[in-house]
């Protein structure tokens, strides 16, 4: 019975360590997303319009190349 108990405890410890690592990764990702969110909140609409315009220009310039490779 002690052998079963020790194996079970070892399995639980391993699972706990995996979950702690996963939680740590989620906390880091959450901090990153919060920083990005704050940055986006602080960007003026004028800057957003400029960014949108540049993205649209890039997409238009890439469109022929994308069609050739498809």
TrEMBL record:
Entry coiled-coil feature ranges: 16-46
Cellular compartments per GO CC: cytoplasm; nucleus
This protein's record includes keyword Transmembrane helix: no
InterPro entries: TSC22/Bun (IPR000580), TSC22/BUN_CS (IPR047862)
UniProt keyword Transit peptide, yes or no: no
Protein's GO biological process: regulation of transcription by RNA polymerase II
SUPFAM superfamilies linked: Delta-sleep-inducing peptide immunoreactive peptide
Keywords, in A-Z order: Coiled coil, Cytoplasm, Nucleus, Phosphoprotein
Domain of life (superkingdom): Eukaryota
Record's subcellular location: Cytoplasm; Nucleus
Annotated family: Belongs to the TSC-22/Dip/Bun family.
PANTHER family (UniProt xref): TSC22, TSC22 DOMAIN FAMILY PROTEIN 3
Protein name: TSC22 domain family protein 3
Organism of this sequence: Cynoglossus semilaevis (Tongue sole)
């Amino acid at each position: 019975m002690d052998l079963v108990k020790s194996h079970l405890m070892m399995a639980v410890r391993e699972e706990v360590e995996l979950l702690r690592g996963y939680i740590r990764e989620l906390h880091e990702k959450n901090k990153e997303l919060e920083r990005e969110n704050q940055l986006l909140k602080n960007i003026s609409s004028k800057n957003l319009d400029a960014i949108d315009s540049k993205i649209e220009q890039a997409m238009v310039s890439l469109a022929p190349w994308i069609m050739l490779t498809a």
